[in-house]
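Filed under: proteins

Residues; backbone shape codes:
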Amino acid sequence: MSLVDEVVLTGARRVTPVLDSVVVVPAGRAELAAYHRLRHDVFVREQGLFSGSDRDDVDDDPRTVVLVARTHDGEVLGGVRLHPALPGRDLGWWRGSRLVVARDARLLLGVGAALVRAACAEAEARGALRFDATVQAQAAALFRRLGWVPRERVHLHGHPHVLVDWPVHRVQRLVDATKAALGPLLTGLVDSGAGFLGDDGAPVPGTDLVAACDAILPSMVERDPEWAGWCAVLVNLNDLSAMGARPVGLLDAVGARDASFARRVLRGLGEASRAWDVPVLGGHTQLGVPGALSVTALGRTTHPVPGAGGRAGHALRVTADLGGRWRPGATGSQWDSSTHRTGAELRALADVVPALAPAAAKDVSMSGLVGTAGMLAEASGVRAVLDVADVPAPDAVAPGDWLTCFPGFAVVTADHPDATSRAPLPAHVTSRTCGELTEGAGVGLRWPDGVVTEAVSTTVTGLGAA
């Protein structure tokens, strides 16, 4: 039996008005019982799609969510369920099914459309990066009007059905917000040297030095100044590590409203400097101004690894430190993999890229893991395809969050097709091949059924191939 059967949903809030007298809400115990009775009345008695019962294993899955449309006096007029499409680990592929509306409410209140919209919003809120459904053929027109995309026609329970997909734009929104403006802003200004445009660090001409510079969001500096200081070191050393460079020193620029606040920022920066054993060589501090922080890191390598070295046919690999937890106050956006590590463990991360000896590498930062894969692909003039099930991820973290967050330490690399043995990696990182570079542009997410959904439609930064 298909996990999908009837219709699916698309939404806006946890409580969605239909008319003044009807809302869509998560089902309580009594509402869930009413929803099951309504399903039986429609799918078994009225339509004859099932014999005896339309219940299945999905109803017993504790992850399944049921939304119902009800009047303010409690009458259930319809409902829908959504759930992970596969048993086992949630990969971020969710499915809607068993959309049902009472016969006397189908043409009057727009209940079905409201349930579909609410289901889409709920799926995305739960970290879904893919949401689909199998709907009866007569319902396909409704789904098309609501923005769903038909994929193929199938025959279920003796009736024609259509597989439909809800486009999830979470990754595209992230890269548009964080990276899309770079091309128009920086073209003609930045000269990083041949093959290094858009890289995390920049080789200093005529030397073996690599320089990297990152600013921390002012809101983060104000909200969590010690963490901001720590992260200013972390992200810059990640940039050097992604190019295979060994850090030699840091420069900082700090703005603060007073000395007390500046001391908190510098405390975090100093703790990180000591943990990684990279000295602060100098910088600039100004008081009486809004909170601001940027750090420049200097490193050395005779063979910097570019982000633009990937080619069609190269394998994509993700190497990450999965240990840790969400930073308090930043659940779903900032993964803290570093503050619990020893200095030796943190310094060992500089060995990752030299050990992998990749053709291309980029550390994962503001645009998330998928967006970073897109930046590597863009600089290399190719397309990235990620196998979602193979991406290393912490347990019990929503895939949509993991693939779009700042993960502490994670690097995306492109492997030479003839790559053989590599040096051992630090024991506290997980490394796995999880995709490939192909001809084209953008980033696709490949799911266990072979379907590829579009995560990034074209380029990430607009800087183009290096």
In short: The chain has three domains: 16-168, 170-194+306-466, 200-304. The two ends are 50 Å apart (CA to CA). The chain has 13 helices and 22 strands.
